[in-house]
Amino acid sequence: MRNLLLMSSSKYANTGYLVHSQDWLKQHFQTQIDAQQEILFISYAGVTTPGAEYTAKVAAALAGIGLRLRGIESYANARDAVTSAHGILVGGGNTFALLNELYRHGLIDLIKRQVQSGVPYAGWSAGANIAGLSIKTTNDMPIVQPPSFTALKLVNFQLNPHYIDQHPPGFHGETRAQRLAEFMELNPATAIIGLREGTALKVQQRMHLLGAHDGVYFRDGREHLIKAGQDCSFLLG
């Protein structure tokens, strides 16, 4: 029953905020748009932006596709917000802060049940990262310590949004691939999908890579290519 849209980023190249993903989001939430149902926006990752301000920014960016949002911060009880949601949209920011708030409000199992019952879920950056098994492959700093790194487990692999394999001249730190290789060394059977900016995963009964760029996945100590538009359902296990 799951219906997921897992996006790498809110911006792509020189396009405006969420512009590159509008068609994806419109298709993803088309049933809710047609029925004029509100989509729940979870703003917890936006550490430096107040929840209402974050919700207003996203709502303005998506108003042109008919998407109606209500921020979780506007509810007296966050659990009621999730259980009554017709669709769930999770914004980017700090993955550790986002997961910590989900645990603090007791929302992990509630979101999973909603998704399993068919409620569409979409997220970018941190909002995509938490859909995986854990947040151990995020790029973010651990500015807070969640009760666990275990995430929503909506898919059975790890995610690395904003994946990049460029190595600037004079830069002597580890590349993204080297960091992910460290995870593979300790978790050889767990796949990691690297999502380049401007790409997304669409997951229903099958899974496809959206966008014009190729992606990568890492497993068993090796890096593999995912072609743009490829059916990569084999990674669903």
Automatic annotation (TrEMBL):
SUPFAM superfamilies: Class I glutamine amidotransferase-like. GO terms for biological process: proteolysis. InterPro entries: Class_I_gatase-like (IPR029062), Peptidase_S51 (IPR005320). Keywords: Hydrolase, Protease, Serine protease. GO terms for molecular function: serine-type peptidase activity. Belongs to the peptidase S51 family. This is Dipeptidase PepE. It comes from Aliidiomarina haloalkalitolerans.
